[in-house]
Amino acid sequence: MASSSKRVSTLRSALHASADGRRFSLHPEDEHSSSAHQNLRSDPAHRVHAGLDTSRVSTGVIWVTEQAAKHGYADEPQKWANLGQGAPEVGDDIEGCFPRPTSIPVTLQGQEYGPVVGIKPLRAAVAKLYNEHYRQGKESQYTWENVCIVPGGRAGLIRIAAVLGNAYLGFFIPDYTAYSEMLSLFRNFVAIPTPLSSADGYHIHADKVADELARGTTVILTSNPRNPTGHALDPDELSLIQDICRDRATLIFDEFYAGYNYNSGCDGSTISAASNVIDVDKDDVILVDGLTKRFRLPGWRVAWIVGPKPFIQALGSSGSYLDGGTNVPFQEAAVEMLDPPKVREEMKALQRHFKMKRDYVLKRLREIGFNQGDQEIPDSTFYIWLDLTTLDPPLPKDSAIDLSNGLSFLDALLKERTIVVPGIFFDLNPSKRRDLFDSPCHHFVRISYGPKMSVLKMGLDGIERAVKRARGETVQDDRATQEESEARSPQSPIQSEKGAGHGEHSH
Protein backbone atom coordinates (compact mmCIF):
# COMPACT_ATOMS: atom_id res chain seq x y z
CA MET A 1 0.00 0.00 0.00
CA ALA A 2 2.85 2.37 0.80
CA SER A 3 4.29 1.86 -2.70
CA SER A 4 0.90 2.51 -4.27
CA SER A 5 0.39 5.68 -2.24
CA LYS A 6 3.82 6.93 -3.25
CA ARG A 7 3.02 6.33 -6.94
CA VAL A 8 -0.32 8.17 -6.62
CA SER A 9 1.40 11.04 -4.82
CA THR A 10 4.04 11.30 -7.55
CA LEU A 11 1.42 11.31 -10.27
CA ARG A 12 -0.70 13.91 -8.49
CA SER A 13 2.28 16.23 -8.08
CA ALA A 14 2.78 16.12 -11.86
CA LEU A 15 -0.78 17.25 -12.59
CA HIS A 16 -1.70 20.79 -13.55
CA ALA A 17 -4.93 22.44 -12.42
CA SER A 18 -7.10 24.54 -14.71
CA ALA A 19 -7.72 28.20 -13.91
CA ASP A 20 -10.94 27.36 -12.05
CA GLY A 21 -9.36 24.42 -10.20
CA ARG A 22 -11.93 21.94 -11.47
CA ARG A 23 -9.95 20.20 -14.16
CA PHE A 24 -6.57 18.46 -13.96
CA SER A 25 -4.26 17.48 -16.79
CA LEU A 26 -0.82 16.05 -17.42
CA HIS A 27 -0.18 19.03 -19.68
CA PRO A 28 0.79 22.47 -18.33
CA GLU A 29 -1.04 24.05 -21.28
CA ASP A 30 -4.76 24.73 -21.02
CA GLU A 31 -7.00 24.87 -24.10
CA HIS A 32 -8.94 27.76 -22.55
CA SER A 33 -5.83 29.94 -22.48
CA SER A 34 -5.11 29.44 -26.18
CA SER A 35 -7.02 31.49 -28.75
CA ALA A 36 -5.98 29.07 -31.50
CA HIS A 37 -7.63 26.15 -29.69
CA GLN A 38 -10.73 28.12 -28.76
CA ASN A 39 -11.01 29.13 -32.40
CA LEU A 40 -11.27 25.47 -33.38
CA ARG A 41 -13.78 24.68 -30.63
CA SER A 42 -16.04 27.63 -31.47
CA ASP A 43 -16.21 27.13 -35.22
CA PRO A 44 -19.75 26.72 -36.62
CA ALA A 45 -18.67 23.32 -37.95
CA HIS A 46 -18.69 22.11 -34.34
CA ARG A 47 -22.14 23.43 -33.42
CA VAL A 48 -25.45 21.63 -33.74
CA HIS A 49 -27.79 22.42 -36.66
CA ALA A 50 -31.08 20.68 -37.37
CA GLY A 51 -30.72 18.09 -40.11
CA LEU A 52 -26.95 18.51 -40.40
CA ASP A 53 -24.26 16.26 -38.98
CA THR A 54 -21.70 18.97 -38.29
CA SER A 55 -19.02 16.48 -37.26
CA ARG A 56 -18.35 15.80 -40.95
CA VAL A 57 -17.54 19.31 -42.15
CA SER A 58 -14.11 20.15 -40.72
CA THR A 59 -11.38 17.99 -42.22
CA GLY A 60 -7.87 19.37 -42.00
CA VAL A 61 -7.42 21.00 -45.40
CA ILE A 62 -10.91 22.55 -45.25
CA TRP A 63 -10.26 23.91 -41.77
CA VAL A 64 -6.91 25.55 -42.57
CA THR A 65 -8.25 27.01 -45.81
CA GLU A 66 -11.18 28.56 -43.94
CA GLN A 67 -8.80 30.06 -41.39
CA ALA A 68 -6.56 31.44 -44.13
CA ALA A 69 -9.59 32.99 -45.83
CA LYS A 70 -10.13 35.11 -42.71
CA HIS A 71 -6.69 36.59 -43.32
CA GLY A 72 -7.28 37.35 -47.03
CA TYR A 73 -6.25 34.09 -48.73
CA ALA A 74 -9.47 33.81 -50.74
CA ASP A 75 -8.99 37.28 -52.22
CA GLU A 76 -5.29 37.03 -53.11
CA PRO A 77 -4.19 33.37 -53.10
CA GLN A 78 -1.22 34.16 -55.35
CA LYS A 79 0.37 36.10 -52.48
CA TRP A 80 0.21 33.10 -50.15
CA ALA A 81 2.31 29.98 -49.72
CA ASN A 82 -0.13 27.10 -49.42
CA LEU A 83 1.95 24.26 -47.97
CA GLY A 84 -1.18 22.57 -46.66
CA GLN A 85 -2.94 21.27 -49.76
CA GLY A 86 -1.98 17.69 -50.61
CA ALA A 87 -1.48 18.28 -54.32
CA PRO A 88 1.59 18.21 -56.57
CA GLU A 89 2.48 21.09 -58.84
CA VAL A 90 0.81 20.82 -62.22
CA GLY A 91 1.87 21.85 -65.72
CA ASP A 92 4.88 21.17 -67.95
CA ASP A 93 7.62 22.77 -65.86
CA ILE A 94 9.37 19.56 -64.79
CA GLU A 95 12.24 18.57 -67.06
CA GLY A 96 11.78 15.08 -68.52
CA CYS A 97 8.03 14.80 -67.89
CA PHE A 98 5.70 14.30 -70.85
CA PRO A 99 3.56 17.29 -71.93
CA ARG A 100 0.10 17.41 -70.35
CA PRO A 101 -2.87 17.75 -72.71
CA THR A 102 -4.31 21.24 -72.98
CA SER A 103 -7.45 20.03 -74.72
CA ILE A 104 -9.39 16.77 -74.68
CA PRO A 105 -11.15 15.40 -77.79
CA VAL A 106 -14.68 14.20 -77.16
CA THR A 107 -15.63 11.15 -79.20
CA LEU A 108 -19.20 10.02 -79.84
CA GLN A 109 -18.65 7.32 -77.20
CA GLY A 110 -17.44 10.02 -74.82
CA GLN A 111 -20.83 11.72 -75.03
CA GLU A 112 -22.63 8.62 -73.78
CA TYR A 113 -22.88 7.19 -70.30
CA GLY A 114 -19.76 5.13 -69.72
CA PRO A 115 -19.47 1.76 -67.94
CA VAL A 116 -19.53 2.24 -64.17
CA VAL A 117 -16.36 0.11 -63.91
CA GLY A 118 -14.60 2.18 -66.57
CA ILE A 119 -13.88 1.81 -70.27
CA LYS A 120 -12.15 -1.41 -71.28
CA PRO A 121 -9.09 0.19 -73.00
CA LEU A 122 -8.13 2.07 -69.82
CA ARG A 123 -8.74 -0.96 -67.61
CA ALA A 124 -6.50 -3.00 -69.92
CA ALA A 125 -3.81 -0.29 -69.87
CA VAL A 126 -3.75 -0.26 -66.06
CA ALA A 127 -3.48 -4.08 -65.95
CA LYS A 128 -0.60 -4.01 -68.46
CA LEU A 129 1.23 -1.34 -66.42
CA TYR A 130 1.00 -3.39 -63.22
CA ASN A 131 2.08 -6.60 -64.94
CA GLU A 132 5.15 -5.03 -66.57
CA HIS A 133 6.25 -2.98 -63.55
CA TYR A 134 5.43 -5.38 -60.70
CA ARG A 135 4.71 -8.90 -62.02
CA GLN A 136 7.45 -9.72 -64.50
CA GLY A 137 7.93 -13.51 -64.67
CA LYS A 138 4.97 -14.31 -62.40
CA GLU A 139 2.48 -16.92 -63.55
CA SER A 140 -0.60 -15.02 -62.36
CA GLN A 141 -1.19 -11.80 -64.31
CA TYR A 142 -3.78 -9.03 -64.01
CA THR A 143 -6.33 -8.58 -66.81
CA TRP A 144 -8.76 -5.76 -67.55
CA GLU A 145 -11.29 -7.62 -65.39
CA ASN A 146 -9.07 -6.99 -62.35
CA VAL A 147 -9.37 -3.21 -62.75
CA CYS A 148 -12.14 -0.75 -61.88
CA ILE A 149 -11.88 2.92 -62.91
CA VAL A 150 -13.27 5.37 -60.34
CA PRO A 151 -13.78 9.17 -60.18
CA GLY A 152 -10.98 9.87 -57.73
CA GLY A 153 -9.36 8.11 -54.79
CA ARG A 154 -12.02 9.09 -52.26
CA ALA A 155 -14.75 7.70 -54.50
CA GLY A 156 -12.75 4.49 -54.83
CA LEU A 157 -12.34 4.09 -51.07
CA ILE A 158 -16.04 4.80 -50.53
CA ARG A 159 -16.95 2.12 -53.09
CA ILE A 160 -14.66 -0.33 -51.30
CA ALA A 161 -16.20 0.49 -47.92
CA ALA A 162 -19.68 -0.04 -49.38
CA VAL A 163 -18.95 -3.62 -50.43
CA LEU A 164 -17.18 -4.80 -47.28
CA GLY A 165 -19.08 -7.33 -45.17
CA ASN A 166 -19.46 -7.42 -41.40
CA ALA A 167 -15.92 -7.05 -40.14
CA TYR A 168 -13.48 -5.31 -37.87
CA LEU A 169 -11.48 -2.90 -40.06
CA GLY A 170 -8.11 -1.77 -38.78
CA PHE A 171 -6.22 1.34 -39.83
CA PHE A 172 -3.15 3.03 -38.42
CA ILE A 173 -2.78 6.62 -37.26
CA PRO A 174 -1.49 9.12 -38.10
CA ASP A 175 -2.82 8.69 -41.62
CA TYR A 176 -4.85 10.33 -44.37
CA THR A 177 -7.25 12.86 -42.87
CA ALA A 178 -10.42 11.61 -44.50
CA TYR A 179 -10.16 7.88 -43.65
CA SER A 180 -12.07 8.07 -40.37
CA GLU A 181 -14.73 10.36 -41.86
CA MET A 182 -15.32 8.07 -44.85
CA LEU A 183 -15.31 4.90 -42.80
CA SER A 184 -17.83 6.24 -40.31
CA LEU A 185 -20.42 6.55 -43.09
CA PHE A 186 -20.90 2.78 -43.16
CA ARG A 187 -22.34 0.64 -40.36
CA ASN A 188 -21.64 -2.82 -41.78
CA PHE A 189 -18.17 -2.90 -40.22
CA VAL A 190 -16.40 -1.50 -37.17
CA ALA A 191 -13.39 0.73 -37.87
CA ILE A 192 -10.67 0.37 -35.22
CA PRO A 193 -7.76 2.84 -35.26
CA THR A 194 -4.33 1.72 -34.01
CA PRO A 195 -1.85 4.44 -32.98
CA LEU A 196 1.73 3.99 -34.14
CA SER A 197 4.80 4.91 -32.13
CA SER A 198 6.65 8.15 -32.72
CA ALA A 199 9.82 6.51 -31.39
CA ASP A 200 10.40 4.69 -34.70
CA GLY A 201 8.96 7.24 -37.10
CA TYR A 202 5.41 5.83 -37.09
CA HIS A 203 6.37 2.75 -39.09
CA ILE A 204 3.92 -0.12 -39.54
CA HIS A 205 5.64 -3.31 -38.43
CA ALA A 206 4.62 -6.85 -39.27
CA ASP A 207 4.15 -7.72 -35.59
CA LYS A 208 1.70 -4.83 -35.27
CA VAL A 209 -0.32 -6.33 -38.13
CA ALA A 210 -0.14 -9.77 -36.49
CA ASP A 211 -1.57 -8.21 -33.31
CA GLU A 212 -4.47 -6.82 -35.36
CA LEU A 213 -5.23 -10.27 -36.76
CA ALA A 214 -5.06 -11.79 -33.28
CA ARG A 215 -7.82 -9.51 -32.04
CA GLY A 216 -10.12 -10.42 -34.93
CA THR A 217 -9.41 -7.74 -37.53
CA THR A 218 -10.27 -9.06 -41.01
CA VAL A 219 -9.75 -5.89 -43.10
CA ILE A 220 -6.72 -3.59 -42.90
CA LEU A 221 -6.53 -0.20 -44.66
CA THR A 222 -3.36 1.86 -44.91
CA SER A 223 -1.56 4.29 -47.17
CA ASN A 224 1.78 3.11 -48.55
CA PRO A 225 3.80 5.29 -48.97
CA ARG A 226 2.30 6.94 -45.91
CA ASN A 227 0.57 10.28 -45.65
CA PRO A 228 1.53 12.33 -43.59
CA THR A 229 4.85 10.86 -42.41
CA GLY A 230 6.49 10.47 -45.82
CA HIS A 231 7.67 6.89 -45.38
CA ALA A 232 7.07 3.66 -47.27
CA LEU A 233 7.13 0.15 -45.90
CA ASP A 234 10.41 -1.67 -46.42
CA PRO A 235 9.87 -4.09 -49.37
CA ASP A 236 10.76 -7.12 -47.22
CA GLU A 237 8.38 -6.05 -44.46
CA LEU A 238 5.61 -5.33 -46.97
CA SER A 239 6.06 -8.86 -48.37
CA LEU A 240 5.99 -10.34 -44.85
CA ILE A 241 2.80 -8.44 -43.98
CA GLN A 242 1.12 -9.80 -47.10
CA ASP A 243 2.26 -13.34 -46.25
CA ILE A 244 0.86 -13.02 -42.70
CA CYS A 245 -2.49 -11.71 -43.96
CA ARG A 246 -2.93 -14.12 -46.89
CA ASP A 247 -6.23 -16.02 -46.48
CA ARG A 248 -6.74 -14.27 -43.11
CA ALA A 249 -7.54 -10.65 -43.95
CA THR A 250 -8.25 -8.29 -46.82
CA LEU A 251 -5.49 -5.72 -47.33
CA ILE A 252 -6.41 -2.34 -48.84
CA PHE A 253 -3.42 -0.25 -49.89
CA ASP A 254 -3.80 3.42 -50.80
CA GLU A 255 -0.80 3.71 -53.16
CA PHE A 256 -1.37 7.22 -54.49
CA TYR A 257 2.18 8.26 -53.60
CA ALA A 258 3.79 5.18 -55.14
CA GLY A 259 5.70 7.24 -57.69
CA TYR A 260 7.43 9.43 -55.09
CA ASN A 261 10.11 6.91 -54.21
CA TYR A 262 13.56 8.29 -53.32
CA ASN A 263 15.10 5.02 -52.07
CA SER A 264 16.41 3.69 -55.39
CA GLY A 265 18.47 6.55 -56.76
CA CYS A 266 15.54 8.14 -58.61
CA ASP A 267 15.67 5.40 -61.23
CA GLY A 268 11.91 5.49 -61.85
CA SER A 269 11.09 2.36 -59.88
CA THR A 270 7.91 2.57 -57.84
CA ILE A 271 6.28 0.84 -54.88
CA SER A 272 3.30 -1.51 -54.97
CA ALA A 273 1.97 -4.48 -53.04
CA ALA A 274 1.18 -5.97 -56.46
CA SER A 275 4.76 -7.28 -56.47
CA ASN A 276 3.98 -9.74 -53.66
CA VAL A 277 0.59 -11.04 -54.80
CA ILE A 278 0.73 -14.77 -55.57
CA ASP A 279 -2.64 -15.17 -57.28
CA VAL A 280 -4.36 -12.00 -58.52
CA ASP A 281 -7.83 -13.51 -58.02
CA LYS A 282 -7.23 -15.32 -54.72
CA ASP A 283 -5.05 -12.91 -52.73
CA ASP A 284 -7.29 -10.40 -50.95
CA VAL A 285 -5.13 -7.41 -51.86
CA ILE A 286 -6.86 -4.28 -53.16
CA LEU A 287 -4.79 -1.41 -54.57
CA VAL A 288 -5.94 2.17 -55.13
CA ASP A 289 -4.01 4.67 -57.29
CA GLY A 290 -4.62 7.06 -60.15
CA LEU A 291 -3.53 10.06 -62.20
CA THR A 292 -3.91 12.44 -59.26
CA LYS A 293 -0.50 12.41 -57.59
CA ARG A 294 2.18 10.70 -59.63
CA PHE A 295 0.82 11.90 -62.97
CA ARG A 296 0.14 15.36 -61.48
CA LEU A 297 -3.42 15.58 -62.76
CA PRO A 298 -5.57 16.08 -59.64
CA GLY A 299 -8.27 17.92 -61.58
CA TRP A 300 -8.99 14.97 -63.88
CA ARG A 301 -10.46 12.80 -61.10
CA VAL A 302 -9.36 9.57 -62.81
CA ALA A 303 -8.26 6.78 -60.47
CA TRP A 304 -8.35 3.00 -60.40
CA ILE A 305 -8.74 0.02 -58.11
CA VAL A 306 -6.84 -3.21 -58.81
CA GLY A 307 -7.87 -6.46 -57.13
CA PRO A 308 -9.53 -9.88 -57.43
CA LYS A 309 -12.33 -10.12 -60.00
CA PRO A 310 -15.11 -10.73 -57.43
CA PHE A 311 -14.18 -7.46 -55.69
CA ILE A 312 -14.10 -5.57 -59.00
CA GLN A 313 -17.54 -6.86 -59.94
CA ALA A 314 -18.93 -5.75 -56.57
CA LEU A 315 -17.31 -2.33 -56.96
CA GLY A 316 -19.12 -1.88 -60.27
CA SER A 317 -22.42 -2.52 -58.52
CA SER A 318 -21.68 -0.07 -55.70
CA GLY A 319 -20.60 2.58 -58.20
CA SER A 320 -23.97 2.43 -59.92
CA TYR A 321 -25.66 3.88 -56.84
CA LEU A 322 -22.78 5.89 -55.31
CA ASP A 323 -21.13 7.95 -58.04
CA GLY A 324 -22.21 6.74 -61.50
CA GLY A 325 -18.69 6.33 -62.89
CA THR A 326 -15.80 8.36 -64.28
CA ASN A 327 -15.77 11.00 -67.01
CA VAL A 328 -15.34 9.07 -70.30
CA PRO A 329 -13.36 11.64 -72.37
CA PHE A 330 -10.72 11.88 -69.64
CA GLN A 331 -10.52 8.09 -69.45
CA GLU A 332 -9.93 7.94 -73.19
CA ALA A 333 -7.18 10.57 -72.96
CA ALA A 334 -5.50 8.70 -70.10
CA VAL A 335 -4.93 5.45 -72.02
CA GLU A 336 -1.79 6.55 -73.87
CA MET A 337 -0.26 7.97 -70.69
CA LEU A 338 0.01 4.51 -69.14
CA ASP A 339 2.44 2.99 -71.64
CA PRO A 340 4.91 1.26 -69.23
CA PRO A 341 8.21 2.64 -70.70
CA LYS A 342 6.67 6.13 -70.82
CA VAL A 343 5.59 5.83 -67.19
CA ARG A 344 9.09 4.73 -66.14
CA GLU A 345 10.65 7.84 -67.71
CA GLU A 346 7.96 10.01 -66.15
CA MET A 347 8.72 8.58 -62.72
CA LYS A 348 12.46 9.23 -63.12
CA ALA A 349 11.80 12.90 -63.81
CA LEU A 350 9.25 13.14 -61.02
CA GLN A 351 11.58 11.59 -58.44
CA ARG A 352 14.57 13.78 -59.35
CA HIS A 353 12.49 16.94 -59.16
CA PHE A 354 10.65 16.22 -55.91
CA LYS A 355 13.76 14.90 -54.14
CA MET A 356 15.41 18.22 -54.97
CA LYS A 357 12.45 20.06 -53.41
CA ARG A 358 12.47 17.78 -50.35
CA ASP A 359 16.15 18.46 -49.75
CA TYR A 360 15.59 22.21 -50.10
CA VAL A 361 12.77 22.24 -47.51
CA LEU A 362 14.72 20.09 -45.03
CA LYS A 363 17.79 22.31 -45.41
CA ARG A 364 15.75 25.46 -44.74
CA LEU A 365 14.04 23.90 -41.72
CA ARG A 366 17.42 22.93 -40.24
CA GLU A 367 18.73 26.45 -40.80
CA ILE A 368 15.66 27.86 -39.04
CA GLY A 369 16.33 25.54 -36.08
CA PHE A 370 14.14 22.47 -36.59
CA ASN A 371 15.81 19.08 -36.28
CA GLN A 372 14.29 15.81 -37.43
CA GLY A 373 13.98 14.28 -33.98
CA ASP A 374 12.59 10.74 -34.06
CA GLN A 375 11.30 11.18 -37.60
CA GLU A 376 13.95 10.21 -40.15
CA ILE A 377 14.31 11.91 -43.53
CA PRO A 378 11.16 11.05 -45.50
CA ASP A 379 11.88 8.61 -48.31
CA SER A 380 8.56 8.98 -50.16
CA THR A 381 5.56 11.27 -50.84
CA PHE A 382 5.96 15.07 -50.81
CA TYR A 383 5.36 15.68 -47.11
CA ILE A 384 7.43 16.64 -44.08
CA TRP A 385 5.94 15.50 -40.74
CA LEU A 386 7.56 18.22 -38.66
CA ASP A 387 8.03 17.74 -34.91
CA LEU A 388 7.72 21.25 -33.47
CA THR A 389 9.40 20.23 -30.22
CA THR A 390 12.72 19.85 -32.05
CA LEU A 391 13.16 23.62 -32.41
CA ASP A 392 16.65 24.41 -31.10
CA PRO A 393 17.32 26.49 -29.15
CA PRO A 394 13.85 26.44 -27.58
CA LEU A 395 11.80 29.62 -27.58
CA PRO A 396 12.12 31.94 -24.57
CA LYS A 397 9.61 31.04 -21.85
CA ASP A 398 8.22 34.55 -21.94
CA SER A 399 7.63 34.50 -25.72
CA ALA A 400 4.32 36.08 -26.72
CA ILE A 401 4.05 33.65 -29.66
CA ASP A 402 3.42 29.93 -29.07
CA LEU A 403 4.89 27.58 -31.68
CA SER A 404 4.83 24.39 -29.60
CA ASN A 405 1.71 22.81 -31.14
CA GLY A 406 0.17 22.57 -34.59
CA LEU A 407 -2.82 24.85 -34.03
CA SER A 408 -0.79 27.67 -32.51
CA PHE A 409 1.92 27.23 -35.15
CA LEU A 410 -0.69 27.61 -37.90
CA ASP A 411 -2.11 30.65 -36.10
CA ALA A 412 1.32 32.31 -36.22
CA LEU A 413 1.94 31.33 -39.85
CA LEU A 414 -1.36 32.77 -41.08
CA LYS A 415 -0.01 36.19 -40.17
CA GLU A 416 2.88 35.39 -42.53
CA ARG A 417 0.57 34.26 -45.37
CA THR A 418 1.68 30.64 -45.02
CA ILE A 419 -0.52 27.56 -44.61
CA VAL A 420 0.33 24.16 -43.09
CA VAL A 421 -1.91 21.43 -41.61
CA PRO A 422 -1.82 20.85 -37.82
CA GLY A 423 -1.00 17.28 -36.86
CA ILE A 424 -4.23 16.69 -34.92
CA PHE A 425 -6.11 16.40 -38.21
CA PHE A 426 -4.27 13.15 -38.91
CA ASP A 427 -5.56 11.73 -35.65
CA LEU A 428 -9.13 10.65 -34.86
CA ASN A 429 -11.12 13.90 -34.76
CA PRO A 430 -9.66 14.90 -31.37
CA SER A 431 -11.85 18.03 -31.24
CA LYS A 432 -14.74 15.67 -30.48
CA ARG A 433 -13.09 12.86 -28.53
CA ARG A 434 -10.48 14.21 -26.13
CA ASP A 435 -8.43 17.12 -24.91
CA LEU A 436 -6.46 18.40 -27.90
CA PHE A 437 -3.20 18.33 -25.93
CA ASP A 438 -3.67 14.58 -25.36
CA SER A 439 -3.34 13.82 -29.07
CA PRO A 440 0.08 12.30 -29.90
CA CYS A 441 -0.04 14.29 -33.14
CA HIS A 442 -0.63 17.63 -31.42
CA HIS A 443 2.95 18.91 -31.59
CA PHE A 444 3.34 18.07 -35.30
CA VAL A 445 2.43 19.81 -38.54
CA ARG A 446 2.40 18.46 -42.07
CA ILE A 447 4.29 20.56 -44.58
CA SER A 448 3.76 19.81 -48.27
CA TYR A 449 6.54 20.33 -50.77
CA GLY A 450 4.11 19.62 -53.58
CA PRO A 451 3.95 23.28 -54.75
CA LYS A 452 6.44 24.98 -57.04
CA MET A 453 9.84 26.05 -55.72
CA SER A 454 8.88 29.73 -55.70
CA VAL A 455 5.96 28.91 -53.37
CA LEU A 456 8.15 26.74 -51.16
CA LYS A 457 10.63 29.58 -50.77
CA MET A 458 7.83 31.96 -49.85
CA GLY A 459 6.49 29.50 -47.27
CA LEU A 460 9.86 28.78 -45.65
CA ASP A 461 10.49 32.52 -45.46
CA GLY A 462 7.17 32.81 -43.63
CA ILE A 463 8.13 30.04 -41.17
CA GLU A 464 11.48 31.72 -40.57
CA ARG A 465 9.79 35.06 -39.84
CA ALA A 466 7.37 33.41 -37.40
CA VAL A 467 10.23 31.79 -35.47
CA LYS A 468 12.20 35.03 -35.35
CA ARG A 469 9.17 36.95 -34.08
CA ALA A 470 8.66 34.29 -31.39
CA ARG A 471 12.29 34.78 -30.34
CA GLY A 472 11.77 38.53 -30.11
CA GLU A 473 14.12 39.23 -33.01
CA THR A 474 13.68 42.09 -35.45
CA VAL A 475 12.12 40.82 -38.66
CA GLN A 476 12.55 42.43 -42.05
CA ASP A 477 9.17 41.82 -43.64
CA ASP A 478 9.66 41.83 -47.40
CA ARG A 479 5.96 41.47 -48.24
CA ALA A 480 5.39 45.22 -48.57
CA THR A 481 8.36 45.48 -50.93
CA GLN A 482 7.03 42.54 -52.92
CA GLU A 483 3.58 44.12 -53.23
CA GLU A 484 5.09 47.44 -54.34
CA SER A 485 7.14 45.64 -57.00
CA GLU A 486 4.07 43.76 -58.24
CA ALA A 487 2.10 46.99 -58.47
CA ARG A 488 4.79 48.52 -60.72
CA SER A 489 5.09 45.39 -62.88
CA PRO A 490 3.08 45.23 -66.14
CA GLN A 491 2.61 41.49 -65.54
CA SER A 492 -0.28 40.05 -63.59
CA PRO A 493 0.55 38.36 -60.24
CA ILE A 494 -0.14 34.95 -61.78
CA GLN A 495 2.15 35.67 -64.74
CA SER A 496 4.86 36.75 -62.31
CA GLU A 497 4.40 33.52 -60.36
CA LYS A 498 4.74 31.43 -63.52
CA GLY A 499 7.92 33.27 -64.42
CA ALA A 500 9.37 32.67 -60.98
CA GLY A 501 8.48 29.02 -61.22
CA HIS A 502 10.34 28.60 -64.53
CA GLY A 503 13.33 30.37 -63.05
CA GLU A 504 13.50 27.96 -60.12
CA HIS A 505 13.11 24.88 -62.29
CA SER A 506 15.78 25.90 -64.76
CA HIS A 507 18.28 24.82 -62.13
Draw up the topology in text.
Layout: H1 2-14, E1 16-17, E2 24-25, H2 35-42, H3 60-69, E3 81-82, H4 120-134, E4 147-150, H5 153-163, E5 167-173, H6 179-183, E6 189-195, H7 206-214, E7 217-223, H8 235-245, E8 250-254, E9 285-290, E10 303-306, H9 309-322, H10 328-334, H11 340-368, E11 383-387, H12 406-414, E12 418-419, E13 421-422, H13 430-433, E14 444-448, H14 453-470, H15 479-488, H16 493-505
Parallel strand pairs: 3-12, 5-6, 5-7, 7-8, 8-9
Antiparallel strand pairs: 1-2, 4-10, 9-10, 11-14, 13-14
Helix pairs in contact: 5-9, 7-8, 11-14
Features:
single chain; 507 residues; alpha/beta; Aspartate Aminotransferase, domain 2; 2 domains; three-stranded antiparallel beta sheet; 16 helices; 14 strands; globular; disordered C terminus; pyridoxal phosphate; Aminotransferase class I/classII large domain-containing protein; Aminotransferase_I/II_large; AspAT/PAT-like; transferase
Provide a descriptive summary of the structure in words:
Belongs to the class-I pyridoxal-phosphate-dependent aminotransferase family. Keywords: Aminotransferase, Pyridoxal phosphate, Transferase. InterPro entries: Aminotransferase_I/II_large, AspAT/PAT-like, PyrdxlP-dep_Trfase, PyrdxlP-dep_Trfase_major. Pfam families: Aminotran_1_2 (PF00155). One of its GO terms (biological process) is amino acid metabolic process. The protein has 507 residues and is an alpha/beta fold. It has 2 domains: 182 residues, no CATH class; 232 residues, Type I PLP-dependent aspartate aminotransferase-like (Major domain) (Aspartate Aminotransferase, domain 2), CATH 3.40.640. Helix content is 37%, strand content 12%. The protein is built from 16 helices and 14 strands. The strands form 4 sheets. A 7-stranded mixed sheet has the order 4-10-9-8-7-5-6, with helices on both faces. Strands 11-14-13 form a 3-stranded antiparallel sheet. Strands 1-2 form a two-stranded antiparallel ribbon. Helix 5 packs across helix 9, helix 7 packs parallel to helix 8 and helix 11 packs parallel to helix 14. The radius of gyration is 24 Å and the shape is globular. It starts with a helix and ends with a helix. The relative contact order is 0.15. The C terminus is likely disordered.
